[in-house]
Amino acid sequence: MDEIVPGPVRGDTRHTGPVPGTSRATGPVPGVLPAHGDTEAAEHGQPTIYDVARIAGVSIASVSRVLNGRRNPLPDTKERVERAVAELGFIPDGAARALSVRLKEVVGVVIRRPEVTVSADGIFEDEETSLQFPDLINRGIEVAAQKRDFNLLVSSVGLGHADTHRIFALAGKSDGLILHDRVLDPEQVGRLGHQVPVVNLAGMPTPGTVNVSSDNRAGMAELARHLVRDHGYRSIAYLGGHADSPDNLARHAALAEQVTADGAQFVSGPAWQGNYTAAGGARVIENLLASGNSLPQAIACANDQTALGVVYALVRHGIDVPGGVAVTGFDDIPVARHLHPQLTTVRQPITDLGAIAFETLYSMINDAGRARDDITLPTRLVRRESCGCPPMPMPLTARQP
Amino acid sequence: MDEIVPGPVRGDTRHTGPVPGTSRATGPVPGVLPAHGDTEAAEHGQPTIYDVARIAGVSIASVSRVLNGRRNPLPDTKERVERAVAELGFIPDGAARALSVRLKEVVGVVIRRPEVTVSADGIFEDEETSLQFPDLINRGIEVAAQKRDFNLLVSSVGLGHADTHRIFALAGKSDGLILHDRVLDPEQVGRLGHQVPVVNLAGMPTPGTVNVSSDNRAGMAELARHLVRDHGYRSIAYLGGHADSPDNLARHAALAEQVTADGAQFVSGPAWQGNYTAAGGARVIENLLASGNSLPQAIACANDQTALGVVYALVRHGIDVPGGVAVTGFDDIPVARHLHPQLTTVRQPITDLGAIAFETLYSMINDAGRARDDITLPTRLVRRESCGCPPMPMPLTARQP
DNA sequence: ACTCGGTTGGTAAGCGCTTACCGAGGCACA
DNA sequence: TGTGCCTCGGTAAGCGCTTACCAACCGAGT
Questions:
Q1: Which tens digits make up the pLDDT trace of A3-22?
Q2: Is pTM, for the whole model, over 0.90?
Q3: Chain A: residue nearest B107 by CA?
């Protein structure tokens, strides 16, 4: 900090602004902040790279270079810049950087906003805003994104026109999009895929975008075999998720096929329609019981949340699980092992799903040309108590860290 | 679409580019994509507002105006622009817009990345990546943000230097930051607060930033009174969360105070140190039992997740809840009511917390001047079974929607 | 017919960065 | 001491938008 060059006022160094002293100082809404002396760094806004350059007595190019570690600046230059940055608390503007390098380092993630449900007694059911599964996936995306210095830009949507619009707006703020299940109809997904890189999580196969999903078929088949062959259940129901969810369809089909193939009775139908939520699962059971139906020997639920609600409803009616009816889930969300009884379920590599979705998108962003294939991740049956298996030796959680 | 003005090639309309035909066409890495004829919209990248203007036969200003609904353009102009936009699938670039209007419409949200814990048998415990509470808060933030056309930019951090750096980088990509508990030490928070608007969720009071938290004190006191006065428990333990969490400290203090004031014995200490996770809670109980300690009559846990692990561990050792020991949580996360026994807990308005954090930040972004006070939201006791209360009449979940 | 306000469209500047390009300087070699 | 090469810093263009400012135009009022 020796030869302190007075340094031209920031505005002067720029182009040929018509009003030298004022250029750059006023934003798009001039006069909002009354002009103040433009002598020092006392501008109203954040300090910019020009301020840093002035304080450090170097050019903006040098500042940029030390900040980004390009071209190996002289130690002196480097130090002066670093001092100025620290002094000003300079934080480079991401939008400007993004505009310049044409990369925002942001991926948009769109989840389906949970419907607002109202329980029978008119009480708002905010419990269903749980959404564990999507959150876990997002965590996987986030971890992977972090390694590439990307961040997640999250938006939740319903199915209205305004929401579609929001997704396109999100696309403008990111380098690519990861769409959770059921956030956009296939036609729109296709359109979007023409404009920006898009990865779907368990969506419909769409030209121009890639799908990442897990192997519903194999997982469900394994579960079915276990239920029928190992436990000997003769009637098995599928309590479904959202009717328009590809995951749901695949699980349904796989279960039906395997159960039938093994000679047991497969039960399903409109009365067995859930919605991936605990409340939905409970409601199905309540209705079934209320209408005097007899239950099958085992109920395979579309996901863990549903199973949770089913167990809740059954127990409430004095039906033992798995003694009276066996219940299974799908996903293996973290709470599944803390329930009573511990939930037998099909484990998906949830965070991997997210991580792989990100990596796929990342490669699409960096190499827009090449087409990519859909990806399917393996699943596996996790046998716990709710299917009728004996309690596993519980893992020792005890240990002082 | 009648008087089709040929419309100058995009590049021509700009400044006084030295190489008219090429300006704007090449990015910062010239030659990466070999030059192609600049006749039509066939540029390699996304279409820009210049493309739209050319196709529509109007100026970029007009395009911008119809897109943003400014200045009431003529119907003809409007229609031509809309047609061009649809034809090209034009999505305005968020970075460019942000740079221009000095508003990104993005809030950064920083959560604490869960520590990787390893259970006694050496198995990686990914179950603790659950993080329900922060996710629920984020949902609240997101819903509020949506109303203002903002999006959430999420980042998770540990406590290293690289992570601190990441937070500053996030600040550069957003208009303001919402920090969850324990993501940055108070000094750094203060520094950050000088540069950008910052709202802390249950953090330490820091000059220049605002805190949003819920009334731990009142909630805990109410719980303590219930346990001691209504149930008559004579010894009550506090199973803590992270030692450096302000929430934890407040809950601890409030419980201790009220329990003591009511003449019962308050139990705590190093052996009762948890970490807000189910595994942490279970571990405390295991250790206590292993070392032959007798348990108090009631255990108030720092949060619901902890209580979940505690119940799990107790049941595993044949101790009935609440028959043997009463257990309570804090937060009232959605699963709390689905557990066996249903968890008595202190309800925080979780999503409100997030929503209010956002609204506060939003007002800070739009009016940088005014200082704001910290905000405390009310809590209330939710009596369910795990404290020893009789099971509530279960809400009817049955109803065909 | 002429001016005058109101309205709409176009031009160009500017948002805060990155980087191609050039020129200055230092050094080794002849 | 001259010449070429290599390194480093500075200048300025450009990323894709928004909008101030001005010009053109229209109809109404005098």
A1: 333 333 333 333 333 333 33
A2: no
A3: A153
